[in-house]
Design goal:
43% helix, Rossmann fold, 376 residues, 2 domains, five-stranded parallel beta sheet, 14 helices, alpha/beta
């Protein structure tokens, strides 16, 4: 079969889709990887997976109706030239405009996947800004147009279809829950903690955005440091200068300087940093199913995360870690202190994390499930 996979950022193909593309190639399918943000190096990496890169124009962030209509028309032309048997889109704008383009190109099977609902559907403690509500309403309007043309819509967690489809009365022919896009477990081998640490190291991985819970994490750290000053807290993630709710470079520098956090900046060896940590923490406001948590679990780390969509799919409370209420630094600090005072639980819960990762997040199992949904 000829399969067109429509995404945006090229790195997502070889970062998160590589095992799927290799498996499709191995089965004899011809895969076209549509990317709108790329470098020549990116395109070479996509080719090395066995896919044929196809570039197209789509403004990932903006909402310019005329530009989007033109881009969708041009995308439809490129799809028609290939004449694929299946179009599979992921991320919000490709699911909307890729689906419409595929319909215009008369593709016989069209599937979309939303790996999370995004910031416009993420509750904030002080409520959503009027601009965010406006963007969300526009998204819903566009979903209402595109969704009826989908043969299948895939979500990662069971909360998202309720909060999107049921709440806004959106029609889709069929819905599936994938449960996480999965990991190549060989790339994240089990590395249990060999001995009980004297001073624990808690690790956060994610963009330093408010909705990732970074402010709650910092507030919790200060509470823990007051009682256990020698505890280490490592933060890995990029500063987003364009996001008003993000930690600024000055704030990060100051937190590092006064010894609140360790911040090595951008790193490529995430696995090594997880291995050096004792407990993984992600106090996010909403996720699809967070990849960083899956990585930490595969390596064998206990997890503290929030009781929100996506995050609650990763932790069985009291088994491989703890689920705490969102927006609650006090409860977060309480569970970090629990691990400091009961270090033997780190090993037990870390082992449980690893077992759950094998059961739920093995890319081989996930990709087989995805290919079954796609009918491949």
């Amino acid at each position: 079969m000829k399969i067109a996979i429509i995404g945006t950022v090229a790195s997502s193909f070889y970062g998160f889709r590589s095992d799927l593309i290799r498996e499709l190639y191995k089965k004899g399918h011809i895969v076209y990887a549509f990317t709108s943000e790329y470098t020549d190096t990116d395109l070479r990496k996509i080719k090395s997976l066995g896919a044929i890169p196809v570039t197209y124009d789509l403004n990932r962030g903006g909402l310019n109706p005329l530009a989007d209509i033109k881009a969708t028309y041009l995308l439809a032309k490129k799809i028609k030239e290939i004449s694929p048997d299946l179009v599979f889109s992921y991320f919000t704008k490709p699911v909307i405009f890729g689906t419409l383009a595929a319909k215009w190109a008369k593709v016989s099977k069209i599937v979309g996947m939303l790996e999370g609902l995004g910031y416009t559907f993420t509750d904030q403690p002080e409520g959503l800004l009027p601009k965010t509500k406006l963007i969300r309403n526009l998204q819903i309007f566009l979903y209402r147009i595109a969704f009826p043309y989908l043969d299948q819509l895939i979500f990662l967690n069971p909360d998202d279809p309720v909060d999107l489809l049921e709440k806004y009365n959106l029609h889709v022919k069929a819905v599936n829950i994938l449960g996480g896009i999965g990991l190549n477990l060989e790339s994240y081998p089990y590395r249990p903690i060999s001995k009980l640490p004297v001073n624990l190291n808690f690790l956060f991985i994610g963009r330093l955005l408010k909705e990732k819970g970074i402010h709650d994490f910092i507030a919790a750290i200060k509470l823990v440091k007051h009682k256990y000053p020698n505890t280490t807290f490592t933060v890995l993630g990029a500063v987003d200068k364009s996001n008003l709710g993000a930690l600024s470079e000055d704030e990060v520098s100051n937190l590092k300087q006064v010894g609140i956090i360790e911040y090595p900046g951008h790193v490529n060896n995430i696995q090594e940093w997880i291995v050096k940590s004792d407990v993984f923490v992600l106090p996010s406001y909403r996720e699809g199913v967070p990849r960083s948590t899956q990585e930490a679990m595969a390596i064998g780390r206990a997890v503290i995360t929030t009781d929100v969509p996506g995050c609650r799919e990763t932790v069985i409370d009291g088994v491989n870690g703890f689920i705490v209420p969102r927006w609650n630094p006090e409860k977060l600090a309480e569970k970090m202190i629990y691990f400091i005072e009961h270090p033997e639980k780190i090993q037990v819960m870390g082992e449980a994390s690893h077992k759950i990762a094998i059961e739920k997040f093995d890319a081989n199992k996930v990709n087989q499930k995805l290919m079954d949904i796609l009918g491949l």
